[in-house]
Amino acid sequence: MDALFGAVWTAGGSIDDAGRVAAVLDRAGFDGAALVGRASSPEAKDRLRRNTDEAVGRGAFGVPSMFVGGEMFFGFESFADLEGFLRGDDPVARHPDMVSRWSDLPASATRPRSRRTP
Question: Which of 6, 67, 113, 115 has the fewest CB atoms within 10 Å, i.e. is most exposed?
Fold first, then answer.
């Protein structure tokens, strides 16, 4: 993932086709063709659809989104919060007034439910 992220956001490249993805993976020390082949399998595509539907159903709206129990962590900048949460350091538990303050804020955007059909 670091290699793919770096290829796009650091090197300014593109990973918009299987050959480019395989080349990035090869440079990172993996068998790019084999990994792309496995990712292109019907089983992998079905698993991706199921996982995406589950994530959207749980409220995910972008990547990266991680769920731990009932908590969602969104965005690269939330990794430190996720790590702390996994250690048992829940900032909401330490500051119970946070939720009540946030619950009174108006929503600035809403996401419509998925219109995708199976």
Answer: 115
Residues 37 and 73 in one domain: no
Composition of the chain by helix, strand, coil, percent to 5: 55, 5, 40
Least confident of 19-33, 59-73, 100-114: 100-114
Q: Is the dihedral of CA 7, 11, 12, 14 positive or negative?
A: negative
- Tens of pLDDT along 39-80? 999 999 999 999 999 999 998 988 889 999 888 999 888 888
Tell whether 37 and 61 lie within a shared domain: no
- Measured between alpha carbons, how far is 103 from 96 in angstroms, rounded to an integer? 12
Q: What phi and psi, each to the nearest 5 degrees, are found at residue 57? A: -60, -30
Q: Give the pTM.
A: 0.61
Residue type, position 36, single letter: V
Tell whether 60 and 21 lie within a shared domain.
Answer: no
